[in-house]
Design brief:
The chain has 16 helices and 12 strands. It is mainly α. Among the domains are: about 240 residues, Serine Threonine Protein Phosphatase 5, Tetratricopeptide repeat (Alpha Horseshoe); about 90 residues, no CATH class.
Length: about 500
């Protein structure tokens, strides 16, 4: 039987306190839930712990983000064998390179979200109520929805491709350790996601606190979920709740001259949901996400120049675009042709001078899960798809002006493709592109052997689309051994 440490990560200041020990559980998406919450203060400590667990290297700290960047076509690799190369090559089988830590860590987080929800709901039944308690409950519901959404995108086929396919096991309550839970359909998972988000929305604060979820983060996630369901009108409404608010008005978008510096700061005006990383808590050092994109040996012995921007990304960039300011040259790997333009992305190191985001290390950089620029671009796509091209052009131009040479988009020229290319320019290195390309059923092309070392792969072609079975991960053999009835993904 697989042994998993379910640590409920109670954080008081910088101290981690566990209120539940080690549990033998089978499989890793199940566990008994201990009653640890007796007050709003307890609930807040539990929420602190949940936010901290989401920064694990198996989740937003590295692997989940890498899933979105390494597979999207706008990055290539220096050579095989470095961190993430198997992700880039889609070298997944059910016994190797499964990245099963995503599965186990996200379910681990789900258990904590469930524990918060169950216990707060019980407190409310007993008569303990407060706006603070409601806000924490809304955060837990929203976090759970985000986790379901993240898991079903990694392990299930897209909703708008095959909503009847196997998704993930929807676990919303404590279950016996011996339970053999099976996968719900993709449609059932999305139904639960929408239920959680809609339950949470009226409970959430509309104020902004770094490291926590508010009403606007809830609406951003809701909008993205609706887009995966091809419900673009509903998605546009959710995004409008953000864009039309005082907290996230157009003035909060970074001006072109401020865009590069925004990466050296925490909780900027565009931040909607930002997971906090601190030098003494959550800083992954040489395993941090930003390290994978630095040039070799830059500021850390673990920096190997693993990932560099591909020619496909270079081809859509104007030479004067301000967003080059977070890119740097890689002269450490030899070939002059490959170093003739900046290929290394330093967003998650602050900038090429390793400024970080205002903390004492350049690896303790907050993770920007959702920011306003992405919401503008997603909303622009929604308006394109619902025949409101004037609004789409307005939102797209607000981001495109970061290239001083851009030609303003109009109702006649704006398109879904134009929005997608701007999304690529804006969101490089933020763990997004692959998910969007798959949702839109786009062909993804890879610049293999970019550095001339013969680095090609037998696991995928140089161009794929979402019909390729390895666009989703396998259920690992360990999970199947623990729960023999669980269904494997097709092709594995």
């Amino acid at each position: 039987m697989k042994k998993i440490a379910i640590i409920l990560s109670l954080i008081c200041g910088l101290t981690l306190v566990s209120c539940q020990g080690f549990l033998d559980i089978s499989p890793s998406n199940q566990a008994d839930s201990s009653t640890c919450i007796t007050s709003e203060a307890d609930a807040q400590v539990m929420m602190n712990g949940l936010m901290r667990k989401m920064t694990s290297s198996s989740y937003y700290g590295q692997n989940f983000m890498l899933f979105g960047d390494a597979k999207g076509g706008d990055f290539t690799i220096y050579t095989a064998g470095y961190t993430g190369s198997n992700m880039y090559y889609f070298a997944h089988t059910q016994t190797s390179n499964t990245y099963s830590g995503i599965w186990s860590q996200v379910y681990n987080c789900l258990l904590q979200a469930n524990n918060i929800i169950v216990n707060i709901e019980e407190l409310k039944k007993e008569g303990t109520t407060s706006s603070g308690l409601d806000n924490i409950l809304g955060q837990a519901y929203t976090a759970r929805a985000l986790m379901f959404f993240d898991l079903v995108r990694v392990y299930g086929q897209p909703y708008n491709m095959n909503k009847s396919a196997s998704g993930i096991a929807v676990v919303t309550e404590p279950v016996d350790a011996g339970a053999q839970l099976q996968r719900n359909t993709v449609e059932e998972v999305y139904t639960q996601i929408l239920s959680d988000l809609n339950t949470a929305a009226p409970l959430l604060s509309k104020s902004k606190t770094v490291g926590y979820i508010n009403y606007y983060a809830n609406q951003a996630i809701l909008g993205k979920v609706y887009m995966y369901m091809d419900n673009f009108s509903a998605a546009a409404t959710a995004f409008a709740n953000i864009i039309d608010s005082d907290l996230y008005s157009k003035e909060k978008l970074y001006k072109p001259e401020d865009w590069v510096a925004s990466w050296t700061k925490q909780n900027g005006t565009e931040s909607i949901f930002e997971l906090a990383i601190y030098p003494s808590e959550g800083d992954l050092g040489g395993s941090s996400y930003g390290i994978l994109f630095r040039r070799k040996d830059h500021g850390n012995s673990s920096a190997y120049g693993c990932f560099s921007a591909s020619e496909y990304w270079h081809a859509i960039m104007d030479d004067n675009d301000v967003r080059w300011g977070v890119m740097d040259y890689d002269h450490m790997h030899g070939t002059e042709a490959r170093s003739s333009w900046p290929v290394c992305c330093y967003k998650y190191s602050g900038n090429p001078s390793l400024a970080g985001d205002g903390k004492s290390t350049s690896t303790a950089v907050n993770i920007k899960v959702i920011r306003l620029s992405e919401v503008y671009l997603l909303a622009a796509e929604c308006y394109c798809r619902t025949n409101n091209n004037a609004k789409a052009a307005e939102l797209l131009n607000a981001i495109a002006e970061r290239n001083p040479n851009y030609t303003p988009w109009t109702s006649a020229t704006v398109s879904v493709d134009a929005v997608f290319n701007e999304y690529r320019r804006e969101l490089l290195g933020e763990g997004k592109l692959f998910f969007e390309a798959i949702r839109q059923n786009r062909t993804i092309r890879f610049e293999d052997d970019a550095w001339g070392f013969g680095t090609t792969t037998n696991y995928r072609e140089s161009a794929i689309d979402r019909t390729f079975f390895r666009t989703i991960l396998p259920i690992s053999q360990d999970e199947i051994n623990a729960n023999p009835g669980i269904q494997q993904n097709p092709g594995y």
